[in-house]
Amino acid sequence: MTIRKILLNNAPYHCSELDRGLQFGDGHFTTMRIVNGTPLFIERHLERLSNANQRLFINHSSFDSLAERIKVACSGVEKGVCKVILTRGNGGRGYRFSDDCIANEYIQVSDAPPAVGTVHMGVATLRLAQQPELAGLKTLNRLEQVLLTRECSASRYDDLLVCDSSGHIVEAIQGNVFWFKEGQWFTPDLSAAGINGIIRQLIIDEKLLAPLNIGCYPLNELAGAEKIIVTNSVRGAVAVTQFNDKVVANDELPSVLEQLI
């Protein structure tokens, strides 16, 4: 297919093909915290990117040297955030892609956001779609999160708990969620929807919160929770002090998670 013309903001855009990440959200990303020039948990982030490449059939021919490029980009940054975006590459107007597509790689380094001490959390009205083939992946298709963030901005809360179309707890807008109740920890199963965060998987692999139950839980399972925690790669772990306008009984982080702050 020959593209005759592309206009960007009504001005000629000189490119033979558009990035499929722009056209279709055909790609994925990861975001890591930088401390003293070091991207934290870089091996886990690389594993995430590699897994997503395989599941999405993305040909990233220079993946083996990606770690070095990330480290160079982060060098000299005392506190910051590194975002790595991989798209399938450039392609035509149709959904079908060629096996010859070579991935495009974007590495963005920015300042660290302000530290967050605690969170007041509500419950989102918008529900997440269930799609097991994409569940767990951090794809570029983030329109649900865009709309959820708008909903949160119009509320009185710092973050919102999000359920899927079946009413099961999935995650918060800003990370994965864990809660403590009756002597046990709980976190949602993400086999149908949601993002399997780096910190979430670290907690599971290292058994940092035990005993930990992973399953499908309705919203009322949070009633009477003694602790609620939100985790992500940039903030680490943050305690929820209020949930749906009710004070959570214990807002202190478990000492084992202090290393993640």
TrEMBL record:
Q: Which cofactor does it need?
A: pyridoxal 5'-phosphate
List the GO cellular component terms.
cytosol
User: Which UniProt keyword terms apply here?
Assistant: Folate biosynthesis, Lyase, Pyridoxal phosphate
Q: Which domain of life is it from?
A: Bacteria
An example GO BP is: 4-aminobenzoate biosynthetic process
Write down the EC number.
4.1.3.38
Q: Single GO molecular-function term?
A: pyridoxal phosphate binding
Q: Under which pathway is this protein filed?
A: Cofactor biosynthesis; tetrahydrofolate biosynthesis; 4-aminobenzoate from chorismate: step 2/2
Name the catalysed reactions.
Answer: 4-amino-4-deoxychorismate = 4-aminobenzoate + pyruvate + H(+)
Root EC class: lyase
Family designation? Belongs to the class-IV pyridoxal-phosphate-dependent aminotransferase family.
What does the record note on quaternary structure? Answer: Homodimer.
Give the PANTHER family listed for this entry. AMINO-ACID AMINOTRANSFERASE, AMINODEOXYCHORISMATE LYASE
Question: Under what name is this protein listed?
Answer: Aminodeoxychorismate lyase
The organism is Idiomarina abyssalis
Q: What is the lineage of its organism?
A: Bacteria, Pseudomonadati, Pseudomonadota, Gammaproteobacteria, Alteromonadales
Quick one: which gene encodes this?
Answer: pabC
